[in-house]
From TrEMBL:
Similarity comment: family membership: Belongs to the TMEM104 family.
Domain Amino acid transporter transmembrane: 28-73, 140-456
Membrane topology note: Multi-pass membrane protein
GO cellular component: membrane
Keyword Transmembrane helix recorded: yes
Transmembrane segments: 49-76, 154-173, 215-234, 246-263, 283-301, 313-334, 354-383, 476-498
Keywords tagged on the record: Glycoprotein, Membrane, Transmembrane, Transmembrane helix
Keyword Transmembrane set for record: yes
Protein name stated in the entry: Transmembrane protein 104
Length: 503
């Protein structure tokens, strides 16, 4: 996913636009493409260019399918909310015209009637189409509308695991980038990572300090500076979003141009294999993570005024994103040797032999630090709020210590501990994408659309069709997505077990 695009499962992202034209395309492009794309070049080089291309296209298609599922579920949720509002109005009208003694009976009768009959009157008295997406219904709310209690708890568990993975990736990426840029400098020459130089964590950084010590110092500073935000409420401002997006696109454009120039001058060192199936596990997780947007769709699509060609434009966005990922990854794997590609692709440009201008070297090397640091508090607050929602009791409130200390602490400590133990970003992204990412991108949308279709038919009857229904409307597609998700889970788990056994 584009981590910068995270708006949360009850999130605070604001998108304001007049129609899903060019502006909408840019917002969705921005939502999906984020820092996760920086780990893709190494995954491409490890798995081979043909296997990577085929898997990237297929996973892009599967992500598009489940995106249309979420849009359909959003429309169905809006229709149900509209229907319930109509029923509440009718109950109030009936209450006004009845005696106090009969009010309970009437409310119960109205509720039973609403549960049993198709509500076609919504079309006549409400908006032209009951399935118009006007209310922002987040995935957590959709889960509570269409799932039973067990399903809702599993949904929040999946979201929480994914957010923990996100935070661990962020907590490792910033100190790792700082360590690479500052520890790789030799003497007075601040050239960053030198050509053909391989560093180990035990190598010296500054005097007696090893590289791993520098990494942990940076991690401690990162935690002390950004960790306290977890204990308060944070909102993503529009200007901060614009700034981080601008920096991201400048960095991506500079890297692609520099790689193309090197290849054009015959300086390309990369000779990627056609296929290497040992690298497919991480590639799969990285690709799933890089297509992650389903959780943020309500915040993106609801404010759009014209949704007539929504599916077509979403498809166009996916085509553009596929082209961008392909361009970024192919220029990378043919420009740099596979064994020299860094977990964070920007760090490959912190070399003197690649970039002569020191300002550009430091901008690209430190780029993840700026963009990730602005998003870490937002995701931490989102995770904290999801913990609160998971344990929330109807009508109950948390003691001050639990609310202000316990929840923020259990949010912050685990990802920092993971980052303390490892800075292997490719594996962190791969595992997060392969497990929690599979749940959010495939399993949850498939179950949402299945249950929303069933509930819609019960409430509205067969005469009303969802105007935002997915083009993949046959039940076969729901089964296919779930089968694919299950197969991926088994494949990744077996691959991890076999890899550990060999070690």
């Amino acid at each position: 996913m584009g981590p910068e695009g995270w708006v949360g499962v009850g999130g605070a992202g604001e998108v304001a636009q007049d129609g899903f034209g060019p502006v909408g395309l840019v917002y969705m492009f921005n939502l999906i493409v984020g820092t996760g794309a920086l780990t893709m070049p190494k995954a491409f080089a490890t798995a081979g260019w043909l296997v990577s291309l085929v898997l990237l296209v297929f996973l892009g298609f599967m992500s598009f399918v489940t995106t249309t599922f979420v849009i359909e579920a959003m429309a169905a949720a809006n229709a149900q909310l509209r229907w319930k509002r109509m029923e509440n109005l009718k109950e109030e009208e009936d209450d006004d015209s009845s005696t106090a003694s009969d009010s309970d009976v009437l409310i119960r009768d109205n509720y039973e009637r609403a549960e049993k009959r198709p509500i076609l009157s919504v079309q006549r008295r409400g908006s032209p189409n009951p399935f118009e997406i006007t209310d922002r219904v987040e995935m957590g709310q959709m889960a509570s509308m269409f799932f039973n209690k067990v399903g809702v708890n599993l949904f929040y568990f999946c979201i929480i695991v994914y957010l923990y993975g996100d935070l661990a990736i962020y907590a490792a990426a910033v100190p790792f980038s700082l360590m690479q840029v500052t520890c790789s400098a030799t003497g007075n020459d601040s050239c960053g990572v030198e050509a053909d130089t391989k560093y180990n964590d035990t190598d010296r950084c500054w005097g007696p300090l090893r590289r791993v010590d520098a990494y942990r110092i940076y991690l401690a500073i990162f935690t002390l500076l950004l960790g306290p935000f977890t204990f308060f409420d944070v909102q993503k401002t529009k200007y901060l979003q614009i700034l981080t997006s601008l920096m991201r696109w400048i960095a991506f454009a500079v890297m692609i141009v520099l790689a193309l120039v090197r290849i054009g001058h015959g300086q390309g060192e990369g000779h990627p294999p056609l296929a290497d199936f040992s690298g497919v596990r991480n590639l799969f997780g990285v690709c799933v993570y890089s297509f992650m947007c389903q959780h943020s769709l309500p915040s993106l699509i609801t404010p759009v005024s014209s949704k007539r060609h929504l599916t077509r434009l979403v498809f166009l966005d996916y085509v553009l994103i596929l082209a961008f990922y392909g361009l970024l990854s192919f220029t990378a794997i043919f420009c740099f040797r596979g064994d020299s590609l860094m977990d964070m692709y920007t760090l490959n440009f912190a070399r003197c032999d690649v970039v002569g201008l020191a300002a550009v070297r430091f901008f690209l090397g430190l780029f993840p630090v700026f963009t990730i640091s602005t998003n870490f508090p937002i995701i931490a607050v989102t995770l904290r709020n999801n913990w609160k929602t998971l344990f929330h009791r109807e009508g109950g409130t948390y003691p001050w210590v639990v609310d202000r200390v316990v929840f923020p602490t259990i949010t912050l400590v685990p990802p920092v501990l993971v980052a303390f133990c490892t800075h292997d970003l490719e594996s962190l992204v791969g595992i997060t994408g392969a497990y929690a990412g599979t749940g959010i991108q495939y399993v949850i949308p498939a179950f949402l659309v299945y249950h929303c279709r069933r509930d819609t038919q019960l409430a509205f009857g067969c005469g009303v069709s969802n105007k935002h229904r997915s083009p993949f409307r046959h039940t076969f597609w729901v089964g296919f997505v779930l089968l694919w998700a299950f197969s991926c889970f088994i494949f990744v788990t077996a691959n991890i077990v076999l890899s550990e056994t060999k070690l």
